[in-house]
Amino acid sequence: MKDYVQKMPVYAPVNDSETLDAIGWKVQEYAHTQPDKIALIEGDHTISWQRFLNRANAFANQLRAQGLTTGDTVAGLSENSADFVALYLGTLIAGGCMVPLSGMASGESLALMINDCDARFLFVSHRNDSLYGEVRDHLSHIAANKRIGLDYRPDDSAISLEDWVQGASGKPDPARVGLDDAFNIIYSSGTTGSPKGILHDYRFRSRQIRRMTTNGLNGDAINLVSTPLYSNTTLVSVLPTLFNGGTLVIMPKFNAHQFLELAQAHKVTHAMLVPVQYQRILAEPDFDRFDLSAFQLKLSTSAPLRAKVIAEALERWPGNLIEVYGLTEGGISTSLDCGQHPDKWESVGKPTEGAEVRILDEQLRPLPVGEIGEIVGRAGAMMRGYCNRDEQTREILWTSPEGEVFYKSGDMGRLDEDGFLYILDRRKDMIISGGFNIYAVDLEKILLAHPEVSDAAVIGIPSEYWGETPLGLVVRKTGTTTSADDILEWANLRLGKAQRLSAVEFRDDLPRNTIGKVLKRELRADYLNQ
Question: Do 24 and 167 fall within a single domain?
Fold first, then answer.
């Protein structure tokens, strides 16, 4: 499985040779320069850099002993754990391409992903045993001795990790890789239908690591990891911490109170979180009792962070806050230094160094400042393409009049006169009511400003008269009794005539994927046939 996708255009504003060396070889030095420094913390267990690298190298050597060659794929279905991180690194050391899979996917989808990327090995944790049972009979190309239980033995169709790795040498022997070699395949979250495999090469990751290192994710970082490793959100902070010799504090599953306990106990300096996690952590009754003074920086991504959440985090939580916007595919990259730009909290910041963002109309023509259209961008980090989907890869591309290749985001937004980007909606989520474009985010901001609303989403539902009409789905704060009609009247008084909600309905919670994005496709499904 070497020809995943057609060769993509490369945007090359930086020197890659130094960063490639750091990924390929520098990490091995930590076994000698800082052998006793803690590399990973998981629960009550601490793992030194020497022990961690011995483990990762043993995985790498065993993978190669069983036939893995440069570019071959290794699939992993596991929650966050020390051994899963070691497997990820070991796969890279062996020259393989890591494919972390989501335990939230259906068995049918997982089988499609594993076969789509032509995985040569499959590693599964005990927590995902039932999913393994669903895909087991659809993996005829993966032999039993290449199906491995990370923390258990699944059944006679697989073996345990300890049996598999027994006798493997922990000596370093990194494979030679080039900038065009496959680093990982990340399958999209599935919020827009069938997941696509997004292929990142070493050029993509080396540039991203270099950029994130400037945010302090270096050898001094103690990074608390609470989002899953199959998400690019997580890898954006994990990989620079790892390759710079820092420390990872691993959470198998997010819990707001436990997050605070770990942050205090280990003097955590950095964390990458998604907006819903900020909301839950700040809402913890004991939040102010925890010592979070070691924090230097918190990062937020995957969805826009509300201004009131930014304000509360900066007031109550030590360290700065940076919001990051981009695609797993790469190409688009902006960041907002929340401490420096309090007047721009409704935006997602400005393009990062070497990145460019433009706004296009329906005919794919560039729009001037202030006009709303689809966001496109290019940056140093751009994917190779979608695995085995050349047509869909071509569909994401837009070539500027100057001949430069940009990626389409599917997001609607605008740029202000200072170059800050504002996101309004997914293009597919834009509501067209009576011929007017309605952006759900504008309505959601109003609903979230209501004193008795804790969460809200707005979707377009079929309307015989208007074509579509906006519906507000609201989660009330605990203990409140305001009615849906009261919230509807309150919101519509604050909305423009063309924006007004047709109704408000209550929900106990809103469906989200594991990185916090509201699954509007699921919300709309209940209304499509009405």
Answer: yes
Total structural domains within the chain? 3
For residues 354 and 435, state if they share a domain. Answer: no
What's the pTM value of the predicted model, to 2 decimals? 0.86
The set of residues, in sequence order, having a beta carbon less than 8 Å from that of 489 and lying 6+ positions away, is none
DSSP string, 345-389: TTS--EEPTT-EEEEE-TTS-B--TT--EEEEEE-S-B--EETT-
**Predicted confidence (pLDDT) per residue in 323-337, tens digit:** 999 999 999 999 999
For 3-38, letters b (16+ CB in 10 Å) and e give: ebbeebeebeebebeebbebbbeebbebbeeeeeeb
Q: Which pLDDT band holds residue 76 (cuts at 50, 70, 90)?
A: very high
Q: Which residues contact 483 (CB under 8 A, 6 or more apart)?
A: none
Q: How many CB atoms lie within 10 A of CB 461?
A: 17
Burial of 442 (0-12, 13-18, 19+ CB in 10 A): middle
Q: Give yes or no: residues 435 and 405 share one domain.
A: no
473 vs 471: CA distance, rounded Å:
7
Of 167, 201, 235, which one is at a domain's C-terminal end?
A: 201
Higher pLDDT, 106 or 368: 368
Q: CA 459, CA 380: separation in Å to the nearest integer?
A: 35
Distance CA 80, CA 440 (A): 34
How buried is 487 (Cβ within 10 angstroms: 0-12 exposed, 13-18 middle, 19+ buried)? buried
Token digits of residue 397: 């591309």
Question: Could you read off the pLDDT of 334-391 as tens digits, one per residue?
Answer: 999 999 999 999 999 999 988 999 999 999 999 999 999 999 999 989 999 999 999 9
* Inter-CA distances, 131 with 65, 125, 138, 341, Å: 28, 10, 12, 45
Question: With DSSP H G I counted as helix, E B as strand and the rest as coil, what are the percentages for the chain, rounded to 5?
Answer: 30, 25, 40
Closest CA to 2 of 201, 228, 252, 296: 201
Cβ neighbours of 451 (radius 10 Å): 8
CB 355 within 8 A of CB 333: yes
Same domain? 376 vs 521: no
Query: What is the mean predicted confidence (pLDDT) over 245-273?
Result: 97
Contact indicator for 222, 266 with CB cutoff of 8 Å: yes
For residue 28, give the 3-state DSSP assignment: helix
Contact indicator for 60, 173 with CB cutoff of 8 Å? yes
pLDDT in tens, 459-491: 999 887 788 899 999 999 999 999 999 999 999
80 located within any domain? yes
Pairing of strands 320-326, 297-300: parallel
Q: How confident is the model at residue 292 (pLDDT cuts 50, 70, 90)?
A: very high
Residue 430 has a pLDDT of: 81
